[in-house]
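Sharing a chain and its predicted structure for anyone who wants a worked example. Both blocks are below, sequence first, tokens second.
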Amino acid sequence: MKTVVLVEGESDKCAVETLAARLGRDLASDGVEVLAMGGATNIGHFVRRLGTGVQLLGLYDAGEQHIFRRALGEDDLERIGFFECDADLEDELIRALGFERVEAVIASEGELASFRKMQQQPAHRGSPVERQLRRFLGTHSGRKLQYARALVEALDLDAVPRPLAQLLAGAAA
């Protein structure tokens, strides 16, 4: 049976595929396809379109749980292979890496000065650095996608965030 992994956006898809490659997994050869839905509210459309002939797995942001429960008709989403990111996948990666390593990744991407400038803006001064990092990753078109790959590449494989680890374990079953 084919497995389809549903994720909210392109950056989530990139993170899943990058981690799978780092773990030596060829998802396509395993019969696994990762689909970016273009937002959580599209889950119902994808569930109807894909039908019952595939195994569905996925990731979702904590704030979108109710949407996934309704579309999948299940309260225990983990039981059916859908795993919650708290608050989102970028937040999971920031926690797994720690803010110092995330800042090192930002520096390696040539954007540390931009991040420092954002930190000095009145709206961000005094905010926890983790919140600043999440905001920075989402402020520029294409940045979430760029950093999905870079953060996963910087990740220690023994510190993979739980939702990603569980998702890939489910995709191997």
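Comments welcome. The chain has a mean pLDDT of 95.
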